[in-house]
Design goal:
heterodimer; A: about 260 residues; alpha+beta; Jelly Rolls; 14 strands; about 30% strand; B: about 260 residues; 6-stranded antiparallel β-sheet; 15 strands; disordered N terminus
Chain lengths: ~260, ~260
């Protein structure tokens, strides 16, 4: 898998940084070769079969808007392909995250490696893993959300699409909203193909307006799947506060199968 | 026409013109009157939007889009960037409206008023929408909302429309219609119609797939949605258009209340 590491290193990170600065997202089509995508899908087959028929609570929202679909959180080790993507993306994104913090006058600086950042998460009591796989079928959707609870939040995350739009499913577009101070929000629709990767702003990011920088707030959602099945995943670089047990409140919501 | 105000003479003339140009053989009239309004109402109740596919023919769409340059048909032109609404522009028709937008407005209203009344009752708003458009417009005009609101929007590459609600005064008809006049992929790429809904419990975002000539009926500002324990909750909806990547996209917007 050193090939994958090299592929990631050879991406045009200058272009990616420019896209993230101006749009809050960057599309990275073709990061994974067909063989790597197949390897990933087979590595995920266990998790996919474990996804239970549950309505899942979107835990970043104070009051739960139930998502309609099935989620699997990666509690243990990530499958190899994902682990490489996460580790290698982090190395290239940390300088961008640090530049954003500097612009937003935030003191925190992200360490150079993912391992050190994750250690900092654990030290801060942030143990709950956020990366997850989802399987959405007709009428399923994921609410607008941002998973940026806690003291340590990495301002970027990755999303992957594992199904082919138009062939495996219709609808299910990735939508982002960009809230700007005293202005109407901008809607963004990302056009992704199977095994495409996109880097998204997790929550807040600096935006250069005509009178200097200001802070915009970004959320993302998956639009209602109109037909077929959409499989995708979200990769996070930070953990959420708390331990890994999805207990009490959240577990209760997991078992809430009341579909409205 | 100055500020869109009509004196009685003009108004009578406009009604006479309208009568003469109302050709009953138009297919759209049959499409509207024969549509499955029960299914459309279900979709409006569940999602706050519903599609009437192929309401206008490609020729009708193209004629309306070409009419964007006929200055005499319009009362005002809005450049969105000047107001922070997004990028792109739109023009409000002047009274008397051209025959097609006028007929669409009159034909659609009687089907939507009963739905609007049911929504009003469920939200305890106690607003009664009369069965005929002209009666409702008389109410708007008496309250100082005299200027016509039907419009055509034009987007080029890089243009987008922020998430918003089309409110123009105290009188608000809770449903409006947008008809896509351009053909996706052929005339433009990107430019997807996005709606968000916000309730106490959270937010959703939805991309609505439209083809040339499709009419989308959607929520202007609020709609009732089933709440917990058989109650009704109020959901706020906004709509916008994601950035157009290439080509040109025209939409006809039919709003039923007039503007102050």
């Amino acid at each position: 898998m050193t090939t994958l590491k090299n592929q990631i290193d050879q991406l045009n990170w200058t272009r990616i940084a420019t896209d993230l600065d101006s749009e809050g997202y960057a599309l990275l089509p073709g990061v994974l070769s067909a063989a790597q995508a197949d390897a990933l899908t087979s590595q995920l087959s266990d998790q996919l079969s474990q996804i239970k028929e549950l309505t899942v609570c979107n835990m970043s929202l104070a009051r739960c808007e139930r998502d309609h679909g099935r989620l699997h959180f990666f509690e243990d080790q990530l499958p190899e392909v994902l682990a490489i993507l996460r580790k290698q993306f982090y190395c290239h994104l940390a300088p961008i995250a640090n530049r954003w913090n500097k612009i937003l006058q935030l003191d925190y600086r992200y360490p150079e490696t993912l391992d050190r950042f994750l250690q900092a998460n654990h030290d801060a009591g942030q143990h709950r893993k956020l990366s997850h796989l989802h399987r959405l079928q007709e009428t399923d959707y994921i609410a607008l959300h941002q998973r940026n609870d806690g003291q340590l939040v990495f301002p970027l995350q990755a999303v992957l699409l594992l199904s082919e739009p138009g062939q495996d499913f219709r609808g299910g577009e990735l939508v982002m909203t960009e809230q700007r101070p005293r202005m109407q929000s901008r809607p963004i629709v990302l056009s992704m193909r199977q095994v495409d990767v996109a880097i998204l702003s997790t929550g807040q990011r600096p935006f250069k307006g005509s009178h200097g920088f200001y802070r915009v707030n970004m959320k993302h959602a998956i639009s209602r799947v109109r037909s077929g099945q959409r499989i995708g995943l979200e990769l996070f670089f930070h953990h959420a506060p708390g331990d890994n047990q999805r207990n009490t409140h959240e577990q209760g919501s997991l078992l809430d199968t009341d579909r409205t | 026409m100055n500020k869109g105000e009509l004196d009685q003479c003009e108004r009578d003339k406009y009604k006479k013109d309208k009568g003469e140009s109302a050709k009953p053989d138009a297919a759209y009239a049959a499409t509207i009157n024969n549509a499955d309004w029960q299914a459309l109402e279900c979709s409006l109740n569940d999602y706050g939007n519903a599609i009437v596919p192929g309401l206008l023919s490609p020729a009708q769409c193209e004629a309306l889009a070409a009419g964007y340059d006929r200055e005499q048909d319009y009362r005002s032109r809005i450049v969105m960037a000047r107001h922070g609404f997004g990028r792109g522009e739109y023009k409000y028709f002047a009274y008397p409206l051209p025959a097609l937008p006028d007929q669409l407005r009159h034909l659609l209203y009687p089907h939507l008023a009963p739905i609007a009344n049911r929504w009003s009752r469920q939200l305890n708003m106690h607003v009664h929408y009369p069965p005929a458009l002209d009666t409702f417009l008389d109410q708007c005009h008496a309250a100082g909302q005299m200027r016509p609101t039907p419009l055509i929007l034009q987007y080029g590459p890089g243009d987008y429309n922020c998430l918003h609600q089309d409110l123009y005064g105290d009188h608000v008809f809770p449903l409006q219609v947008a008809i896509l006049l351009s053909a996706p992929d052929r005339d433009f790429t990107g430019g997807q119609f996005v709606m968000t809904q916000t309730a106490a419990a959270g937010q959703r975002a939805e991309v609505i797939p439209l083809q040339q000539g499709d009419a989308l009926i959607f929520t202007v500002n609020h709609r009732p949605a089933p709440g917990k324990r058989r109650g009704t909750r109020k959901v706020a909806m906004r709509h916008g258009v994601s950035v157009v990547h290439s080509g040109r996209r025209h939409t006809l917007g039919i709003i039923f209340h007039d503007a102050r």
